[in-house]
Design brief:
The strands form four sheets. The protein has a seven-stranded mixed beta sheet, with helices on both faces. The chain has a six-stranded antiparallel beta sheet with strand order 12-13-11-14-16-15. A two-stranded antiparallel sheet has the order 4-5. By secondary structure, it is an alpha/beta fold. The chain has two domains: 2-206, Carbamate kinase (3-Layer(aba) Sandwich), CATH 3.40.1160; 290-443, VC0802-like (2-Layer Sandwich), CATH 3.30.2130.10. It has helices spanning 14-25, 48-60, 66-82, 90-102, 106-125, 146-159, 185-195, 229-237, 248-253, 313-323, 344-347, 351-362, 389-399, 425-436; strands spanning 2-6, 30-35, 163-166, 169-171, 177-179, 200-205, 218-219, 226-228, 258-262, 271-274, 290-303, 328-330, 337-343, 366-379, 406-409, 415-421, 442-443. A hairpin with an 8-residue loop joins strand 9 and strand 10. ATP binds at residues 5-8, 205-206, 216. Pfam families: AA_kinase, ACT_9. One of its GO terms (cellular component) is cytosol.
């Protein structure tokens, strides 16, 4: 069995629906289809989910959302009519509108994008439709109840071996609709694949797999053929957003590979995400899998004589950040100092209070704050096998007059993280890509 999840761009209009049907029918193993809400048709278009969020905002302020709702109705009816379907959309849309008038929860309202899109796809494929609220179960703490969800999915699959199901939402024990974070349809697909022990989880989108670097910075970056879950986690955390990170765990634990593929280029094999790569299949000439980064970090450095020898000093500092609910990215340290790296946006409103408390609880000789720092991660499962990767990285940045403000590397040597000035962010990624890509791509001006 293959679970195939299709993103919003894959379901934006009737033509995209036709592509999805061709993909599904090309392989009889594709038995579970997970649908996101219809996405943008053009760059200036609106996603259905965004329109539904706007509708709810209008309702909150007692402003008419009739024009927005008409856009939603029109989109779905256009798809239905262009596909020649006889599906009744008018009644469920009228019922939804009445619920909006009476007072509908935001979660239920925005979930109707996936619900209606999946209804259309089920009718087009002539497959059964299964409401995600029937099989995806949340606890009252807002977390997915994996045990109950697994049982419900398996019971449903025994009744209907193949079906279409909406992504992005499920239900609380009392039946109320609960949505996931944006991009949550990835999680739905992962839950389906894990519960049903699928051979493969296909995630169809508008890109042909995962790229070695951000295409907004690198012109035509190399496509990654195979990547491990650990590498993907590192790249995703540093901003390479191709797959919702919470979608990884269910299939990773079940040892089910994920493949990222392009609905508009179905012949492209895409990128396969696996738990580990057979050494016999490794390209030993390629040590770096991907390069990603994020801007706008703040570094707070505390200076104190013999700081490295004092027990509990770091703990006291971290407790200050914990009190303000600030997540710490990195903690580089020296003999007489240590630094805490945090998101600038997260600390902006409380920086001065935090700095004052840090100086007090750590009894610092001095404390310095540096803003406008970017973090760039060079990630690769084979870097540990090759001497001189770190040296080549530092030499490359130095040769291009890019100053390194911070260095961090894990003991497993799967990644090297460097901190550079925000103004050097794009150029640093460009020169590192040129140094480590199998075939160096062209740099954008």
């Amino acid at each position: 069995m293959i679970v195939a999840k299709f993103g919003g761009s894959s379901l934006a209009d009737a033509r995209q629906f036709q592509k999805v049907k061709a993909i599904v029918e090309a392989d009889p193993e594709r038995q579970i289809v997970v649908c996101s809400a219809a996405g943008r048709r053009t760059k200036t278009d609106n996603k259905i989910t965004d329109l539904l969020y706007l509708c709810h905002a209008h309702l909150q302020y007692s402003v008419s959302c009739e024009p927005l709702f008409d856009l939603i109705r029109q989109r779905f009816c256009e798809i239905r009519d262009a596909l020649g379907l006889s599906l009744d959309l008018e009644e469920p849309l009228a019922q939804l509108k009445e619920k909006m008038r009476q007072g509908i929860s935001q979660d239920e309202l925005v979930s109707r994008g996936e619900w209606l899109t999946s209804k259309l796809m089920a009718a087009y494929l002539d497959w059964p439709f299964v409401d995600a609220a029937e099989v995806i179960r949340f606890g009252y703490d807002g977390k997915i109840d994996h045990n109950v969800t697994r049982q419900l999915i398996r019971a449903q699959a025994q009744q209907t071996p193949r079906f279409v199901i909406p992504g992005f939402y499920g239900a609380l024990p009392n039946g109320r609709i609960k949505v996931m974070a944006r991009g949550g349809s990835d999680i739905t697909g992962s839950l389906m694949a894990s519960a049903l022990s699928a051979r493969l989880y296909e995630n169809w989108t508008d890109v042909s797999g995962i790229l070695m670097a951000d295409p907004r910075i690198i012109d035509h970056p190399v496509q990654i053929e195979r990547i491990t879950y650990s590498e993907l986690r590192e790249l995703s955390y540093m901003g390479a957003n191709v797959l919702h990170e919470d979608a990884i765990y269910p299939v990773k634990d079940a040892n089910i590979p994920i493949v990222i593929r392009n609905t508009n280029q179905p012949d492209n094999p895409g990128t396969q995400i696996v738990d580990h790569v057979d050494p016999a299949q490794e390209d030993r000439s390629r040590f770096v899998t991907g390069i990603a980064g994020k801007k706008d970090f703040t570094v707070i450095t505390m200076y104190r004589h013999n700081a490295s020898n004092e027990v509990g000093l770091l703990k006291r500092a971290l407790e200050v950040l914990e009190k303000y609910k600030i997540s710490v990215e990195h903690v580089p340290s020296g003999i007489d100092n240590f630094s805490i790296v945090v998101s600038t946006a997260a600390i902006a409103d409380s920086l001065y209070e935090i700095a004052a408390q840090l100086k007090q609880v750590c009894e610092c000789d001095d404390i310095k704050v540096v803003n406008n720092l970017s973090l760039i991660a060079v990630v690769g499962r084979n870097m540990a096998l090759q001497c001189g990767i770190s040296g080549q990285l530092f030499q490359t940045l130095g040769a291009h007059q890019i100053n390194i403000r911070m260095i961090a590397q894990g003991s497993d040597e799967i990644n090297i993280i460097v901190g550079v000035e925000n103004e050097d962010f794009s150029r640093a990624i460009q020169v590192l890509y040129a140094a480590f890509a199998p075939k160096a791509g062209r740099m954008q001006a």
